[in-house]
Amino acid sequence: MIRLAILAALASLSLAACAQAPGPRADADAPRRIVSLDYCADQYVLKFADRGDILALSPDAEKSFSYMRAEAGGIRTVRPRTADVLALQPDLVVRTYGGGHDIANFLEKPGVPVIQIGFPQTLDEVRSEVLRVGTALGKPEKAEGLVAEMDSRLRAISARKHPRRSALYMTPAGVTTGEGTLVHELFVAAGVDNFQGRPGWNPLPLERLAYEKPDLIAASFFDGGTNHVDNWSAARHTVAQAQLRDLPVVPLEGAWTACGGWFVVDAVEALAAAAEEPS
Length: 279
Prior knowledge:
With 279 residues, this protein is an alpha/beta fold. The chain has helices at 2-19, 39-48, 69-72, 82-87, 103-108, 123-136, 140-159, 182-190, 206-209, 238-246, 254-257, 264-276, and strands at 34-36, 54-56, 92-95, 114-116, 165-170, 175-177, 192-194, 201-203, 216-220, 249-252.
């Protein structure tokens, strides 16, 4: 059934291409029918593509963890499935993870180019992705301006002086993060020490928290209910709950850290501002 749907979509695409014979235009190489397959890709498409050129966004485009959710209103959405996407006859698809690892191959076979957005783990990688994807979407100057604005805000943060304070990143799923992740890089940029000593993503260090406390809790994704707290989550433990109750909490919107983009600077500013508050 799925194969038949894909073949039908391909046939429709071929017939439409034969039936239409658009005249030449000055910007013939610029994408005019853009489809985004996931909410990380949505942010870049909404930022850099002209609204009239956006054919469809992902079903998550207006969710609370989508930074550009206000701009997504009124734009149609599409499920990240090959047949559904090809039926729209796009001339460009943008994705981070949407549709699974094989969808790019299926889309490129009939000639639909795909921009693959990476998973930045440092601020330098964020800058590179903004410049690369912004340029691919036809807005190199806007991308350069956005990176310049990022750098200006980060310089202003680094110029602010505050006592060294430690923070623990916490999510409703009961995980935290250490060195080697983008969140850790945001802590460094904010001038905040990461309480989590182990690199990568790990469960909350409940045993350590029983006898040692960070100065701050950086609580992310608690705003939108996107990370449900189940009975097995470390976030339900009384030790974890005590941190949220007894320590200063820096609320980090899930949209600031869910993807690697220019908007991560919002999280850096929030962390730096919290570190300046008297303890």
